Amino acid sequence: MTSKRKEQIVALLKGIETGVAKSVAVVNPGKYIQHNPQTHEGGEGLAALFKRLSKTNPRVNIVRVFSDGDYVFGHTEYDFSTSRVGFEVFRFEGEQTVEHWDNIQSRKGPNPSGHSMVDGQTAVKDLVLTETNRALVKNFVSSVLMGRQPEKLPEYVSETYTEHNPRLQDGLGSLRSVLAEDDPEGAIQYQKIHHLLAEGNFVLTGCEGVRGRVHTSFYDLFCISEGKIVEHWDTEETIPPRSEWKNENGKF
After folding, report:
1. Which pTM does this prediction carry?
2. d(Cα 164, Cα 48) in Å, to the nearest integer?
3. Are residues 99 and 6 part of one domain?
4. Which residues have a Cβ under 8 Å from the Cβ of 230 and sit 6 or more positions away?
């Protein structure tokens, strides 16, 4: 079931290139809950979106895809009229997906260490450590990112870890600088964890917070090895005001 669901989601996302309506067959339109504020509810909304996007000659690449119970989540890159990078999360009931979240931003970089927003490790391993790694990341986000305790960084993050955020560089120095930022016009504040999904050595979090006083969603993908975070990717997206939503489900 796990591999089939992954294949179904890959096929769904690749359907953006063609605009073919049958690409959304994995979606249960009667139950589907859409959390992208810019997309209408249900499978019909997705079909219309795919048809519109296909006219821009898009390209879709699923860089990484994972599963966690009834969830399939992927790390993707899109080339529409502009280049973007995103995370997609789908919840399944049986053979169809019934709920969807995403977080997409414009591609930037490479960063000061020469890494793009999507390159790096892709192989899933250490499946027996899934829950251990999930707990590690939960504690890291809660204490270091939400609690803003940079002194705890070495407990969770390798000194030689690889960073894919386009503004930062490898190692702990950049992270310490971000956490030390206290200018309310630019500071990042993580406030709540909404998603905590894991498969083996990879853990994805979806968090709500603010960046420079602006309501923002932060998605972070971590790769763990030997009890430490060794690699990190992320996207951040401004959450539009409710008056601009095309559905009433909210970002999270």
Report:
1. 0.95
2. 33
3. yes
4. 158, 160, 161, 162, 223, 224
